[in-house]
Amino acid sequence: MFSTIVTDDTGSKLAVLEKVKCLNDINATTDIIVVSTDTQPAEWTTGIWIQAPTMVAGLAKAAQLAASKRIIVMSSAVAFQPADLARLVAELDTRQIREHTIVVARDESGLVQIPDMGAEQVLNAISKMDTWPLVLVGTSRFALSMIGEEDATSVTEFLAQALVRSVADGDTIRHSTLIDTVISSANLSAACKLSDEARSRILKTAIDAFNIEELFPNHNWVSYSQESAAASYHSIAALFLRFGDPESAAECLDCSERLEESPRYFALQGLIHQQKGETLGAVASFVSSLQCYEARKVDNGKHYITFKPGNLEVINSRLVDGLNALNKRDNDTAVGHFSEAVFNFDPFYEEHGVLPSGKSR
User: Where does residue 222 rank: exposed (0-12), middle (13-18), buried (19+ CB within 10 A)?
Assistant: First the structure.
């Protein structure tokens, strides 16, 4: 048996009451808890209604109050047939407690892609996907208890962090298409679209939960363990910068600095200075990066990662433009030219969604 938590994601008491009626009709849950920022309706007669200042605070409290170790978290925004729900609960009942299930949702354009939260793919999911359709999830009370209400700002982010931690602990995630779960594109965006700040926090959860070698299995850890670790931290730092979190990016660079002197280290430092508005620091870092890139053009097999500039003519042109701007004391323009020279030297930054100064995604 399950405890069921219904999250009031639309502000529609009618939608919530419809979900509760479906659950009562199939008589498959030990208890029903509704989480809302609104008051309990007068016609409420079943289960527990939690009115909380935020949906995340309510979800955290609901997880504590749940009678069962196994929990279904259901958004009030989804639509389905009662008979389908009965079939889904029967399917979930065959799963082990360390098997979590995400029910595939459908909007007007078709099935909505579910992110892969396994070690080898979770960073790619965080990087590439800003909508995580966690509108109907079978999970556990323990998984939800690992996340505090201060750790997330939406139900989707809360569930994402819980599932990422669970996978890192050895749990499995399954996808179910047994039930035809429908949600409007508008409600999907409102409930499940993650801000850059939320994706940064999920990224922190992933790097705290998994070993660095698990997240980057394709690096040459056997022959180049330190350089592989440095390269991994550079990738994570670039993602943090993409999400507007220079402080977390700087922490990653502190880890990488002890492992290898890399041109990417200096370039990422320059990007951090840029995000903090420290123009002179950015200029110095980008110049150091370009010097390091130049020194690494001829490698002779010493390094795992090599750098081969794509267009030296463009790079040299940007260098000249940057130096001319410096001579005119136009530091902002100089930063733009030097950063473009770096980005032409190495596709790494654009591959991670980070663009030169003045450009936008």
Answer: exposed
Q: Is residue 140 over pLDDT 60?
A: yes
Residue 203 structure tokens: 């990224």
H or E stretch including 106? strand 99-107
- Between CA 211 and CA 128, with CA 342 as vertex, the angle to 5 degrees is 45
pTM: 0.93
Q: Which of 72, 97, 98 is nearest to 166 (CA)?
A: 98
Look at residue 126 in the predicted model and tell me its pLDDT: 97
Residue 181 has which token pair? 């779960």
Helix (H, G, I), strand (E, B) or coil at 94: coil
Average confidence (pLDDT) over 62-83: 94
d(CA 125, CA 123): 5
- Residues across the chain: 361
**Cβ atoms within 10 Å of 348's Cβ, excluding its own:** 20
| Distance between start and end Cα atoms, the chain | 46
Cα–Cα distance between 101 and 171 in angstroms, integer?
11
Tokens 């039930």: give the residue. Answer: 179
Q: CA-CA distances (angstroms) from residue 29 to 22, 40, 67, 238?
A: 11, 21, 10, 44
Domains along the chain with CATH numbers? 2-209 (3.90.550.10), 219-351 (1.25.40.10)
Mean pLDDT over 147-168 rounds to 97
CB 171 within 8 A of CB 210: no
The pair of structure tokens assigned to 178 is 């047994």
The SS3 call for residue 177 is strand
Tokens of 285: 């870092």
CB 292 within 8 A of CB 261: yes
What value does the mean pLDDT take over residues 136-150? 96
pLDDT digits (tens, 9 = 90+) for 212-270: 999 999 998 998 899 999 999 999 999 999 999 999 999 999 999 888 889 999 999 99
Token pair recorded at residue 316: 């040299």
> In the chain, which ranges are E strands?
2-7, 29-36, 48-51, 70-75, 99-107, 110-111, 136-140, 172-182
**Interval 165-180: pLDDT, tens:** 999 999 999 999 888 8
Q: What are phi and psi of 138, to 5 degrees?
A: -95, 120
